[in-house]
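REQUEST ID: PR-0412
SUBMITTED BY: lab tech R.K.
PRIORITY: routine
TASK: structure prediction, single protein chain
INPUT:
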Amino acid sequence: MEEKEEKLEELKQREIQQPPKAWGKKQGLFVAICVALILVLFYLMELCTGDPSMLMMPVALLNPLLLLVLVYVFTTLFNNLKGGMILTLLLMLVFTVTDICAQSFRGVPLLAPDLLIAGTALSVADRFHFSPDTHLKIFMTADVLGIFLVGFFPANVKFRGKGRRNQAIIAALLLCGCVYLFGFSGLLEKAGVTVSHFNPQKSYASNGAVLTFIRSGQMAILQKP
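STATUS: complete
OUTPUT:
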């Protein structure tokens, strides 16, 4: 038994010390497909939640960039690009449908403080009749097809050894950078990325859905008078 345990430990050490394999053509193609899916679904999401032609460039490009950061963080947690992509696509689907329901029910899009009253919203959900429009149906179909495409693609991206450690460091730096940028830096406010308390639809249209939702989190933070 001791010999078997020693051999297993030795194999683990070898795997940790082994340098990461270079990506093959399938892995490279898979990464390109994932990036393309995020960009296409972001555009379809904007058709549902706002108007892509009204997006304020280049700041609005932070929306797909944030989604790609989310994919990377989830990929780090699972050490599996398929898992990271599928979870991100599911979150995009839930977010978009919830936002459309919020707009249909009260005429105001989904904002981060709404998460604090999610229980109250669910208690009255049975009184609300929801009927998806054409844009939402197209987005939902594309999102589900994207999940199947990612799930059944004959390749995946995983990290081992030092590559796994470097991946975790990069993910931590990305998260810290996002927290600083959106919560403490004030750079976005100087660039004109604000959330209107009285007309959040305008903010959705100019900033993009994802960016506006994240920026609206500051509404839930009490400020000193």
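NOTES: Residues 7 and 13 are 10 Å apart (CA to CA).
REVIEWED BY: pending
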